[in-house]
Amino acid sequence: MLNELMDTKVYQLVTERLTPASEGEQGQPIDMNPALIEQILDLYSKDEDYPIEKMRAFSMEEILNYLQATHRYYLTKKLPEIEQSLVHIFSKYGQSHQLLASLAYFFNAYKENLIAHIRMEEKEFFPYIRQLIALSKDEASNAKRPEKFDIQHFMDSHSPIEDELQEVSTLIKRYSSADEPMPLPYKIFLNQVEIFEIELRKHAIIEDHVLVPMALELEKTFFGTSNTYSERSPSQ
Question: I need a surface site. Which of 131, 151, 173, 202 has the fewest CB within 10 A?
């Protein structure tokens, strides 16, 4: 029964990003390949033994569509939800907890860094991937590789932003003690942060170990590049 409940929660977590966050949000639901969703669910359910090559069997466009839907999901749902929980903590405890100032400062800084990270990928990296996809479909003629952009250079400067989120958990757990149990609002906030940290790690695995190697292969095919991408170990 517990396993079924967890499977349902994971399924909801993965699939709710494929529809607009609200009725007023523009955009149509994404028609995602059910087989790809099944593989993503498998990735979420396994710690270190997911065979990543299974996901590379899908098209680059399908992988990119999922990643972009995930970006939208983060910006319109997950980050606002976490922020709202932090606001609730402030409204309940005011300045009575020393932890609040540290949490507010760190989360706001982290949120800005994550948004900047997402915006950069949406402005530079993903459009370049779209160009490679168009070339692979012969939809563009005489297309040239964008100047001042290289996937290998992008990955070399692509820091694992999900690691920074661990600091929130560390702050809260440092505050909590056996003598002073963690208040419920903090538990809720901590749970949201830890789930989001897992979410970001899965997202990074799909981006770094599925999309990027596929894109490098196309780069080599169309532009004759010979870069070898050294994948960082999947931290699941």
Answer: 173
Does any domain span residue 188? yes
Residue 119 belongs to some domain of the structure: yes
**Domain ranges, residue 166:** 59-223
C-alpha dihedral, 77 to 79 to 85 to 88, nearest 10°:
-100
**pTM for this model (two decimals):** 0.84
Neighbours of 193 (CB within 10 A): 23
User: pLDDT of the chain along its 236 residues, tens only?
Assistant: 435 545 778 888 888 888 865 444 555 667 889 999 999 999 998 767 889 999 999 999 999 999 999 999 999 999 999 999 988 888 887 666 667 777 777 888 889 989 999 999 999 899 989 888 888 877 555 555 555 567 877 777 676 777 777 777 777 777 665 566 778 888 888 889 888 988 999 999 999 999 999 998 888 887 775 444 445 555 55
**Rounded Cα gap, residues 219 and 132, in angstroms:** 7
